[in-house]
Amino acid sequence: MSEIPVDTPVYLIENATNRGTTFEAYANCDFALLTNDKGARGTPVIFHPEKGGYTIRSTSANWDAHSYWQMHVTGVKLVQGDVASLFHIHPEDRGFRIGTSGGGCIYYPAKGGKGWFKVAGGVLPNFQEFAYFRTEK
Fold first, then answer.
1. Where are the domains of the chain?
2. 11-136 in CATH: which number?
């Protein structure tokens, strides 16, 4: 697997579904999720190296100052940079997983439904799949 491009906008594509990542508003916050359609590239993100990992920033959001990804109990939420989560990249044959320092990795609803990204370790709830990503310019 190639290195993660840093400090430059890239599309983050989930390999199994061929869907990009984007965001949507809910209760005065944006949350990260897969695009609705296969082949849709979504919103570019920027990986910023930090403390042995990366912060991830969406290049656009409904609230300008809130564009960094943060692991939240309800999903991956877009927040201000000073409270962004630190993510780690785990390369594998199917692509790379995006994980947290706690050992969990991003997952999504696997049955084609819509749902925000969440983070879990080990065994996932029914109809959920870990996300294996690639980047595209």
1. 11-136
2. 2.80.10.50
Which of 109-129 are b and which e, b meaning 16 or more Cβ less than 10 Å from the residue's Cβ? bbeeeebbbbbeeeeeeeebe
12-57 pLDDT, tens digit per residue, is 999 999 999 999 999 999 999 999 999 999 999 999 999 999 999 9
Per-position DSSP letters for 35-51, written without gaps between them = -SSTT--B--EEEEEET
User: Whole-structure pTM over 0.70, yes or no?
Assistant: yes
Task: List all residues 6 or more positions away from 123 whose beta carbon is below 8 Å from its beta carbon.
Answer: none
- What's the CA dihedral at 48, 78, 104, 126 to 10 degrees? -140
126 CB-side CA count, 13 A: 0
Closest CA to 87 of 76, 100, 97: 100
Give the pair of three-digit tokens for residue 13: 């594509």
Residue 1: pLDDT above 50?
no
15 in Cβ contact with 94 (< 8 Å): yes
